[in-house]
Amino acid sequence: MENAELRAAEPVAAAGADPAITEFCNFICLERGLSPHTVAAYRRDLRHFCAFLGQRSSLSGCSRETVIEYLHYLKERPLRETTIARRLAAIKVFFRYLVGQKRRQEDPTAVLDSPKLWKYLPAVLSVAEVDRFLSVIRAADKKNIRDQACFEIMYACGMRVSEVAELKLDAVDLALGIVRCFGKGQKERIIPLGRYARAAVQQYLERVRPSLLRGRQSGYLFLSARGEHISRQRLWQLAKRYAGRAGIGKSISPHTLRHSFATHLLERGADLRIVQELLGHSNIATTEIYTHVNKSRIKAIHRQFHPRP
Length: 309
Description:
By secondary structure, the chain is mostly helical. The protein is 56% helix and 4% strand. It has 15 helices and 3 strands. Strands 1-2-3 form a 3-stranded antiparallel β-sheet, with no helix packed on it. The protein starts with a helix and ends with a helix. The relative contact order is 0.09.
């Protein structure tokens, strides 16, 4: 788990509240339009780097050698390559910002390449497993009507867990059968809403949401028991719970439904560019990983049914 990795790699010195970090985070939030989760990740990674620096150097004045020393420090810890790559990316963007603001003449990370990462195939559920997963929610107590609506939308629209958690009430048009979603960088996309998801959301709006509000007002679609918008962490917990009830042995998360959405569309002949648009990927190379998932399924079918595999 990454939380354990973070604790294992935490420097001894306390992370300082460098004003440059605050200014940078304000910039990427207000001017670049990055999501609160991305901004929080940048802030966390930069504070970790700042804590490592300690008495060695100031954050804005450190050299390329110091950045390399930090990377060696991270590699000696039990960290995944993805974590190291993410932290280096945060540092690189931060120094590009300082150069752009004329607060540094040179970027100490300009000649540092991000580590080449293995591309891991995402975990995907079969259509039968998705049906089983959603069926156990439908068979549960009425209080889980909200959960069914959440996961029906997640699979029907391929939305990220953060997008579902922060979905606004006025972003869903049940009459037209569409969802207006704001993804990374506040990029808007319109996604069709299938009939199962529409029925689930309609039932939630009529039978559950008013009781969660308790007379209060909220612009969010999905609410917690306290009437606040549901958290990403809660959706992760619920995904694990229902997967267990459905007897699905795979390690799944809410994102597994997004992966399954993309894979199932491509398996049925959907155009890759359309799937890219539905997922909100800025680069089609990100979407292409699902073609590899599809190829692995083709190979499995070949091995299973060919007389001389």
